[in-house]
Write a structure and sequence with these properties.
The longest helix is centred in the C-terminal third of the chain and has 48 residues. The chain is mostly helical.
């Protein structure tokens, strides 16, 4: 089996990348079901997919991405419009799965695919309902710790003694979960004191614990501040546009209402995007930066400066 994989990988590496893309699209279709049903406490298994008019959707009209394009975004049974978000989630998932396969060896690639699936579900549920269900935050954190123990490669831990590698990797995951959650918790507390209103939800605190379990404490810290930076670039243009509109229309009440709504933006999607960026390519640079900072404060560095 391994030899066959190596032969195919050496002669036609694109086959496995294409396979990862297709699997990602299929998983993305399932994620759409999870995003829609989980907040309503409905089963994601049964009943099967159905149109808004109540008609079941046959499997040949439920092909990820392709069906939406062929049907031009409309249901075949009643011609109701389907949201473009359905193929968008499928496409994003497919691209992330392919990126994981291209970036990593098989085992960390599969772990990364699971991590991306958790992040995507939490992201779109947070966008819709301003909540992150515990099954993705707390559940994701538990899964991350367990996978770190079972597959030390998740945190690049190597040892000639497998048990020691598992313990070290598990400790990295636990530390990442606690550092990430603790950091966000105290930032939320300080923000509430300063702004006299909740600055961050409890779901975000638990969610970054999940990120820390998969990415370690460096990834959790990066997700926190990287997410804040992403949020700044997303929110500032929106707020600026509202202020320009208010100056032109002089409709103060409408603008105040929109500004208040703009202030209630889910932070989960920004944390998720920063976590994906870290996991898929920035971890090497972020970790190197933290190592350099640690060296500056190490006793050896201090003695060298003294000399």
């Amino acid at each position: 089996m391994i030899e066959a994989y190596q032969i195919v990988e050496s002669n036609a590496p694109w086959i496995f990348t294409l396979f990862a893309f297709v699997i990602g699209a299929v998983v993305g279709s399932f994620l759409n079901v999870c995003i829609y049903r989980i907040p309503e406490n409905r089963s994601v298994i049964a009943p099967g997919s159905a149109c808004a008019c109540g008609q079941p959707i046959p499997f040949y009209r439920n092909i990820p991405i392709i069906s939406w394009i062929l049907l031009q975004g409309r249901a075949a049974c009643c011609e109701l419009k389907f949201s473009i978000r359905y193929p968008l989630v499928e496409l994003i998932t497919a691209l992330l799965f392919a990126a994981c396969w291209l970036q990593f060896d098989p085992v960390p690639a599969l772990l990364g695919m699971l991590f991306c699936a958790i992040l995507l579900c939490a992201t779109f549920i947070d966008l819709d309902h301003m909540i992150i269900p515990d099954r993705f935050s707390i559940g994701g954190m538990v899964i991350g710790v367990l996978l770190a123990c079972l597959f030390p490669v998740l945190h690049s831990v190597e040892s000639s003694i497998p048990l020691l590698a598992s313990i070290e990797s598990g400790l990295v995951a636990v530390l990442g979960a606690f550092v990430g959650s603790g950091l966000v918790y105290w930032i939320a507390v300080l923000g509430e004191v300063i702004f006299r209103k909740p600055a961050m939800g409890e779901g975000d605190v638990k969610f970054i614990g999940c990120i820390g379990a998969f990415c370690g404490w460096q990834g959790a810290v990066f997700a926190m501040f990287g997410g804040a930076l992403i949020g700044t670039f997303v929110l500032l243009p929106w707020i600026l546009a509202l202020r320009i509109r208010s100056a032109l229309k002089k409709n103060v009440s409408d603008v105040e209402e929109r500004l208040d709504a703009a202030g209630q933006v889910p932070f989960g999607p920004m944390l998720a995007l920063a976590a994906i960026l870290y996991y898929l390519g920035l971890s090497e640079y972020v970790d190197a930066y933290f190592n350099q900072v640690a060296e500056l404060f190490s006793p050896a560095a201090g003695s060298a400066v003294g000399r």
